């Protein structure tokens, strides 16, 4: 089986980069994004790892799913990794992708050797008031209407609204975001909130025997940057705060983010 290029596994679009014989590194995007959001860091990672980018159900090039419950999405991801014959991989999740990664480790500890969480809010009380543009774009009562008439410029502004540094938003990310349905997005947000409300991410990680890297932008406008230190209580966890970086370290500081992931993946094995 040729792993490289892209294919669909268990309802999820999967893209492979890097040498097939290299150690695997799985990248999971956040809500309202796609695997293409990792684009700026992939070249550095793929030089040493078999990089596997996942489009979660209803995002990017993956079709909608019957359920967007976090454990259900993790189960689908586990099935895809099983089909690829992978075990004890390093899994990195951005934002709510960190919830899927954590749920995967909870369900299938044999599949996860280490976890990297990037801009993953630890609990509901760490959520900040969202930028005004995002409140109009995704919230009632105007959200459904605005969602239908989104231009490329609006989509780019939606990404940059949570960034601290100027960024070039990849064209393929804009194309992938355009295909996400409003109802899907709102449903995903609701299930993500339920997952961390039921039990905080630090509490979940403490119950797991797995090395953890937490990367947080020190100027994240979506989650209180100080909440990154909630992860200090997790055994085997290392917290990295990136100065002058917002919610998208992969876009705002790709070189630093890539270096941190490379070092973590190499030392956590």
Tally of discrete structural domains: 1
CATH topology: Rossmann fold
CATH architecture label: 3-Layer(aba) Sandwich
Number of strands: 8
Overall shape: it is globular
Rg estimate, integer Å? 17 Å
Tell me about the biggest sheet?
A: 8 strands, mixed
The number of helical runs is 11
Report the order of strands and helices. Answer: EEEHEHEHEHHHHHHEEHH
Distance between the termini: 26 Å
User: In which order are the strands of the major sheet placed?
Assistant: 1-2-4-3-5-6-7-8
Query: What is the average of the pLDDT values?
Result: 94
CATH class category name: Alpha Beta
Q: What do these coordinates show?
A:
With 269 residues, this protein is an alpha/beta fold. It has 11 helices and 8 strands. An 8-stranded mixed sheet has the order 1-2-4-3-5-6-7-8, sandwiched between helices. The protein is 38% helix and 17% strand. Strand 1 and strand 2 (12-17) form a beta hairpin. It has helices spanning 42-46, 70-84, 97-107, 132-138, 143-148, 152-160, 171-178, 182-198, 201-206, 249-252, 254-267, and strands at residues 5-9, 12-17, 24-28, 50-55, 89-94, 112-118, 212-217, 237-242. The two termini are 26 Å apart. The chain has a single domain (5-267), classed as Alpha/Beta hydrolase fold, catalytic domain (Rossmann fold). The model has no long low-confidence stretch (mean pLDDT 94). The chain is globular.
């Amino acid at each position: 089986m040729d792993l490289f290029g892209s294919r669909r596994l268990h309802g999820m679009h999967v893209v492979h980069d890097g040498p097939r014989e290299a150690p695997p590194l799985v990248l999971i995007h956040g809500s309202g994004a796609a695997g293409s959001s990792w684009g700026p860091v992939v070249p550095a990672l793929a030089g040493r790892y078999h990089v596997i980018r996942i489009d979660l159900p209803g995002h990017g090039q993956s079709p909608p799913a019957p359920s967007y419950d976090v454990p259900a999405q993790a189960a689908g991801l586990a099935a895809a990794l099983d089909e690829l014959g992978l075990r004890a991989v390093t899994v990195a999740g951005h934002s709510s992708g960190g919830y899927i990664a954590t749920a995967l480790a909870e369900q299938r500890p044999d599949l996860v050797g280490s976890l990297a969480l990037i801009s993953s809010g630890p609990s509901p009380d760490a959520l900040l008031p969202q930028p005004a543009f995002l409140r109009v774009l995704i919230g009632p009562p105007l959200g459904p209407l605005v969602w239908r008439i989104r231009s490329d410029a609006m989509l780019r502004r939606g990404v940059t609204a949570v960034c601290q540094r100027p960024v070039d938003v990849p064209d393929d990310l804009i194309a992938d975001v355009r295909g996400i349905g409003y109802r899907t997005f709102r449903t995903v947000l609701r299930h993500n909130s339920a997952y961390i409300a039921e039990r905080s991410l630090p509490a979940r990680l403490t119950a797991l025997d797995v090395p953890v890297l937490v990367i947080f932008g020190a100027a994240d406008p979506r989650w209180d940057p100080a909440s990154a230190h909630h992860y200090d209580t997790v055994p085997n966890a290392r917290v990295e705060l990136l100065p002058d970086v917002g919610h998208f370290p992969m876009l705002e500081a790709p070189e630093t983010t890539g270096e941190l992931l490379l070092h973590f993946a190499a030392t956590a094995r």
